[in-house]
Each structure stands twice: as C-alpha cells, then as structure tokens.
Amino acid sequence: MTSRTRKTIICANIISRLSRGFKHPGAGLVAAAALVWLALAGAVMAQDRPVAAPADKDVVVGYHISPPFVMRDADGNLQGMAVDLWNEVAGELGYTATYRDYPTVAGLLEATRNSDIDIAVGNISITEDRATLIDFTQPWFDAGLRVMIDKEGTTGLGDVWEGLWDAGYVEAYGWIVALIILSTIGLTLFDRRFDKNFPPRWRDGFSESFYAVMLVATKGTLPSRTKLFGWIGRIFSAFWLIIGVAVLAYVTSSVTSVMTSLAIKGDIRGPEDLPGRTVGVFAGSISENIMAGEGIDIRAFEGIDQAVAALKENDVDAIVADAPVLEYYKHEHPDIGLDVVGRIFNPGKYGFALPYSQEARTQEVTIKLLALQESGELDALEKQYFGDER
User: Fold this and answer.
1) What Cα–Cα distance (Å) separates residue 60 from each residue in 75, 89, 119, 171, 183?
2) Which entry of 49, 85, 169, 253 is 20 to 30 Å from 91 by CA?
3) Which CATH number fits domain 149-153+266-348: 3.30.420.40, 3.30.1490.20, 3.40.190.10, 3.90.76.10?
C-alpha cells in the first residue's frame, strides 16, 4: 500500500468521525471540506517538491573516446564538447570526479546499468531501448547518422589483385597456369612424335609449344603449320581451341567482375546505397543496431581509427556512425581521401546517462543543463567545436 493511499484512508476516517461528532450536519460538511482541501493541497505540494539533491559529491564518471565530444590532448588530458559541458555542470554542482575509460559504447552503457559508474559522459544517443535500462538527462545535442566513404576509390592494380584473391580467382588462375605448363609439355611430346620438322632441341621445341598453347589460351587460335598430323592432330587442335576459348572467357569475366565490384564501391551516395555492401560500425552503437536491423552486413570496431583503417584497406565499403563524429574526423584528416555523403538519417539526441538509482543526481544535472541552454552557454560551446555549420 502506498503512502498516498494510507493518507486517503486516514482522511476519510477523520471526516467520517467529524461528521458524526457535529450536531448540525452543515458544520460537519464544512469541517470535512476543509480537511479535504488541506489533504489535496498537501498532495500537490508533495508532488511539486523537487527530489532532494544527492549528498555525495564524489562521482565516478565513465567515458568512451569519440572525437570531438570526448578526446585527449597531447598531454593525455580529457577534452571535447561533452567533457567541457560536463566540467561546467560539475563545477556548478561542486562534484569531484574520478574518470574511467571504456573501449566501447556497449561497455560504457553496461557499466552505467550496473551502477559501476555514477554518470556516463559523451555523445550518448537517447533511445527507447536504452531508456528501459538506464536513465538520461535533458538532451543537449541534436544528432543523427551519416555515411563515410573512401572518395579516392579503389582502381589500382593492387586493389584488383586483392579483389581477385578475396574472390578465389587467384587459386583458379594457379590451376590454369599448371594446365598451361602440362599442355606445353604434352604438345611438345606430341609434336616430337608426329612432326618430323619439329625442333630437335628440347628448349626450342618447348618454347614453340608454349607459344602455341598461349595463342590458344589468349586468342583461341592455333599457329599456322606447314604440316597437319592427320585426323588425330585435327581433333587434338580442336579440343585445345575449345579449352582456350573457355580459359579466355573465364579470365576475362573474373577480372571484369572484380573491377565492376570495385567501381561500385565508389557509387555510395547515401544510406539507400548500403544494401549489399559491408558496412563498418562502432560496437554497441546505434548505427550497429540500425544496420543490423536493416539486414546489412556489418563489421563492428571499437573506434573510428580502426573503422577508417578497414575502409582504406577495402575490408568495408563504408562507415555508418554519428554524423558529427564522421564530419569532425574528415575535417581533422583532410589528406587521407575521406568523404561524408548523403543525408542525415535516424535523427536522435545526446544526453548524459545515469543509473536509475541516481534519480536525484539525474534531476540535479538536468537542471544545470537547462540553465546552460537558457543562458546561451551551450550554443557557444557547440559553435566552438562545429562553427556556424550546424
């Protein structure tokens, strides 16, 4: 039974007794009305009364490196928009913070849920699923997802070879080379047996046979001969013509397929071009959930440096992550050929995260965030990191 229910029952009992105790019924009703008014006023005041602020000012703050919201300077000190915002709030509230680094967003959120930390600071998207597990402050940043690609493309010879290797064509080429060598030896033995004009020296005969085999393999034709070897030679030649045409078609189609696949990678212009591609995401992030839900092949990375390395090595075709994170990385690394393309999708908001057991602290931090927003300090901080582009 709740305290409000108990109070209601007590008030009802008092009203009943007072009504019986007054001789005049009107007097009892007046007294009852007065008590009801007092009870309702007390309930409203109890609802409007703010939650008591937490007495403990020593807090454990968890974070995940994600520039430009959380990063380290050359001396290893934490900085970034989320860090600066937290420092403003912590200074106003008199908090003394101890910091813990988490390699992934998933680890940071799990630590918050388990109350291993008092507050998680960073670009943490507020979602319905997360809100069932952890509490959030007032949102302080509008965000969403975008797509990063390697705008330099992948048209080099090394990229083509890597594509052929990954597709399994190189192994098939090895068997073709072995077949050419065996065919050259076989044709040499055949000509030495049936063609009296065939060069007697093995190296001369082998080179002539190799030339004949390569003509079959690359052009599907046989060199002109001054002498045919009867019906056996004709059948033998026709057989190798068929083999040569098949080999030429296979090599041509495989190289074309790989080069087409590499060219398609440069055609990603937004989220609608991602189906059928391999996409890099951050472990435990919103982008991981969204891409997996769309049935897109994903690879999860701890941070953006690892994801970009995979993008440059063609292990992934694109990266999907928070738009400001990708845009900032591109701005800070203009020389490595990255581009952020397409519209912002799956819009969301950032907030600080706390365990549900920290309700008083959540309210306290939220009030300070609202104050910074109303004073214009939050807008000034955003312009400091993103300029006037947002």
Assistant:
1) 22, 14, 7, 55, 73
2) 49
3) 3.40.190.10
Q: Using the predicted structure, report yes or no on whether residue 82 has a pLDDT greater than 60.
A: yes
Return the SS3 of 263: helix
DSSP code at position 273:
G
d(CA 259, CA 315) in angstroms, rounded, equals 16
Considering only residues 82 and 202, tell me which one the structure prediction assigns the higher pLDDT. 82
Tell me whether residue 21 is exposed, middle or buried, using C-beta atoms within 10 angstroms of its C-beta: 0 to 12, 13 to 18, 19 or more: exposed
In this chain, the answer to whether the domains covering 58-140+351-386 and 149-153+266-348 adopt an identical fold is yes
What is the model's pTM?
0.58
Class of domain 58-140+351-386: alpha beta
For 49, phi and psi rounded to 5 degrees? -70, 125
322 membership: H or E segment, kind and range: strand 318-322
Q: Which residue has the higher pLDDT, 43 or 288?
A: 288
Please give the DSSP secondary-structure letter assigned to residue 97.
E
- Assess whether the previous peptide bond of 68 is cis (omega < 30° from 0): yes
Q: What is the pLDDT of residues 36-57, one digit of tens each?
A: 444 444 444 444 445 455 557 9
Q: Where are the domains of the chain?
A: 3-48, 58-140+351-386, 149-153+266-348, 158-265
Residue 85 three-state SS: helix
